[in-house]
Design brief:
Length: 169
Amino acid sequence: RPERYAKLTHIVFGVARTFERPELRNVRVTEEVSITSTEVAVNTLDFTLDSKSNVEYMFQLKQPVSAFDGSTLIGVFYINSSKHRASGLYDVACIDAIGVLDESAFPGGMYSGYPVRALLEEILDGHFDLELDKPLREAAVTGYLPECSRREALQQGAFALCAMVYTSG
């Protein structure tokens, strides 16, 4: 339509595959949350794929995997490792967004009256969406955040705000 701009949020390259229950063995999802924010837990998804097709798969590091229970989204995970055990048989281990943040450094800094949303968006570095409860949207932080992983920085921010980080679903 004229004078209406499209907003492009992401582009997916390649082929999307859907694996159904008969092809999956040993599916294990671990979801944790610390209500005291002493730790920001990494949720995991581990499964064995017993593919019924003649296609050989090459799983890529950090490739997104959406896990569903029926039509309900359990979570989005990212491939951390995979092993091709036999023809059509693969062991795949995945981590959630928090696990991905653990592998990236955050430079830290000194903050004075700095908006919480801005700090958390810096920590997430535009890789993941952020949802904040209403009381936190207008909050500000003051203090020193040392150089650490992005996961540790997120944990420190949540602890300072007496908040918790929840990434399930």
